[in-house]
Design brief:
Layout: H1 7-11, E1 15-21, H2 42-56, E2 69-76, H3 84-98, E3 104-109, H4 116-125, E4 129-135, H5 139-145, H6 151-164, E5 168-175, H7 182-195, E6 199-204, H8 212-218, H9 226-242, E7 246-249, E8 252-254, H10 261-267, E9 271-275, E10 280-283, E11 286-289, H11 294-302, E12 309-313, H12 316-328, H13 336-342, H14 348-360, E13 364-366, E14 372-374, H15 376-380, H16 382-392
Parallel strand pairs: 1-2, 1-9, 2-3, 3-4, 4-5, 5-6
Antiparallel strand pairs: 6-8, 7-8, 10-11, 11-12, 13-14
Bound molecules: S-adenosylmethionine and iron/sulfur cluster.
Length: 400
């Protein structure tokens, strides 16, 4: 089991801070994350608005003073598209609210944006973790994904990041790409292992609506291949386990001590504040998002409003559902008795009725620590299992 909570955090549940940097030079063919090409004054305006949005957050709860922020994650988009002085300004804005150095601070960087001056600023701010969006080491596949970087740029970026001395480095890889052979996937894994990062995220390509690849799928120019996906998944699990990377979630592998605490805390249904367009928050009794529209977000912040879209109250049923659905995807699994105490609702009865069938079907198993988690077969069917879990908590039980 991955232990990512310190004693202090067990006493006070960890609070995360996510900042969405919505800028990219171009749009990759697979990507549905909210991002735009920045116009002339877009970045200074964005930084003004992030500072203003942070000022709107109710950091204090229950009269106990502002909570310390345990983890920070800058995602995108491409945070690395900001110049070094802009990264510094964003970092200073964040540090005004963290109550000291965050325990973990991740910044996602696209390899083409990695420069020594940006890395120096990030190190000086206290960033601990860099996540590089590599996707593949195969030039033809990078090209087919519409990526802007070359394999040589990935290697150079990795060396610069390592040379700058960050405590933890992640590489993102994607698999089951159109035309990708099993040999190419194994070669990508081998090259990633050879570089010796601390963490690897391996994502099965999803065809997201309104992306260039989605259009190709709709036109029949590329095809889904579930058998190939399953085989590539299995290959990654075996290969990475053999290379010293422990799987701690369906898509995530780490050397000891390098699991991403920010993500683990969100999967454990702790709280986080999200700043920037499209960012979601789970905080102060509510889950809600900012609009996925830079102009609309600016208008909201100027009007003193934030996190207004998709607003749901954090009821015990909602948190129970998501803590099981996301928790099962982690190798540490979930302790149902503990979650029942944390999120009490009569709807647990339905989940307790479902568990024996999932066990019987070999989709979940008991862990040595007395918890339950997905089996390898369950991981391949994780979305279907998750849907069944969510359905258990979907509505109040009908009274007899
Ligand atoms: C939020 S993206 C941003 C990373 C950064 N902008 C970059 O591209 O280098 C994080 C990761 O999600 C993964 N990803 C994005 N869209 C995906 C998709 N449609 N299918 C599978 N993985 C995807 C990619 O591996 C990507 O590096
Ligand atoms: S994958 Fe990364 S670089 Fe490509 S469009 Fe998405 S956020 Fe931007």
């Amino acid at each position: 089991m991955v232990e990512v909570l310190t004693g202090q955090e067990k006493a006070e549940p960890p609070l995360g801070l996510y900042v969405h940097v919505p800028f990219c030079a171009t749009t990759c063919d697979f990507c549905a994350f909210y991002q735009v090409v920045p116009r002339a004054d877009a970045i200074p305006r964005y930084l003004d608005a992030i500072e203003a949005e942070a000022g709107l957050v109710r950091w204090e709860q229950g009269g106990a003073g502002p909570r310390r922020i345990a983890t920070v994650f800058w995602g995108g988009g491409t945070p690395g598209l900001l110049r070094a002085p802009d990264l510094e300004r964003l970092g200073r804005a964040v540090l005004r609210h963290t109550g000291g150095a965050p325990r973990e601070w991740t910044v996602e960087l696209a390899p083409a944006t990695v420069t020594a001056d940006r890395l120096a600023v990030l190190r000086a701010l206290g960033v601990t973790r860099i996540s590089l969006g590599v996707q593949s080491f195969e030039p033809a596949l990078l090209e087919a994904l519409g990526r802007q970087h070359t394999v040589a740029q990935v290697r150079r970026a990795y060396e610069l990041v390592r040379g700058a001395g960050f405590a933890s480095v992640n590489l993102d890889l994607m698999f089951a790409l159109p035309g990708q052979t099993e040999e190419q996937w194994l070669a990508d894994l081998a090259e990633a292992v050879r570089l010796a990062p601390d963490h690897l995220s391996t994502y099965c390509l999803t065809f997201e609506e309104d992306t260039a690849l989605w259009v190709k799928l709709a036109q029949g120019r590329v095809k889904l291949d579930p058998a190939k996906e399953a085989e590539f998944y299995r290959r990654a699990w075996d290969r990475l386990a053999d290379s010293g990377f422990a799987q701690y979630e369906i898509s995530n592998f780490a050397r000891p001590g390098h699991a991403c605490a920010h993500n683990v805390n969100t999967w454990r249904m702790h709280e986080w504040v999200g700043l920037g367009p499209s960012a979601a928050s789970q905080h102060a009794g509510w889950r809600a998002s900012n609009p996925s529209d830079l102009g609309q977000w600016h208008d909201d912040i100027a009007a003193g409003q934030r996190a207004r879209a998709d607003r749901s109250e954090l009821t015990p049923a909602l948190l129970a559902a998501d803590s099981v659905a996301f928790g099962l995807r982690m190798n540490e699994g979930v302790s149902l008795p503990r979650l029942q105490r944390r999120f009490p609702t009569p709807l647990w009865e339905r989940l307790l009725d479902l568990v024996p069938r999932l066990l019987f079907d070999g989709l979940i198993a008991d862990t040595p620590e007395g918890r339950i988690s997905l089996t390898a077969r369950g991981r391949l069917l994780a979305d279907a299992v998750g849907a069944e879990v969510l359905a258990c908590f979907a509505a109040e039980p009908v009274s007899p």
